[in-house]
Design brief:
Blueprint: E1 6-10, H1 14-26, E2 30-34, H2 37-41, E3 49-55, H3 63-72, E4 79-83, H4 88-97, E5 101-104, H5 109-123
Parallel strand pairs: 1-2, 1-3, 3-4, 4-5
Amino acid sequence: MSSSPLVAIVDDDQSIRDATSNLLQSAGFLTATFADAESFLTSASAPRAACLVADMRMPGLSGLQLHQHLVASGAPIPTVLITAYPSDATRLRAREAGIVCCLAKPFAPDELLECVRRALAAATPKS
């Protein structure tokens, strides 16, 4: 399934990384997982990622800061933000930054799959 889009998952919680990766792989996506933004940014997977699923709160760059960094560097990746600390302020900041979806942990598997599909649709060039 090498033609499947690569979804990068960046979360400091290994159980969340593993569960998210397993869910997306079961839906036919290729995944790569990272414990922090810095390891993602320096990986060979970063330029190949078609979608980013990132935790809002992590050591180092947050998921929102990671998204903003990618946008500022000219290499934006459609991003789904996940957080255990949802708030209206977080959702507003995410929306203003161009985040595709902002999901509260724990999220339903179908919610994440729908958000990833929306992110990939946003990344697909229109002809």
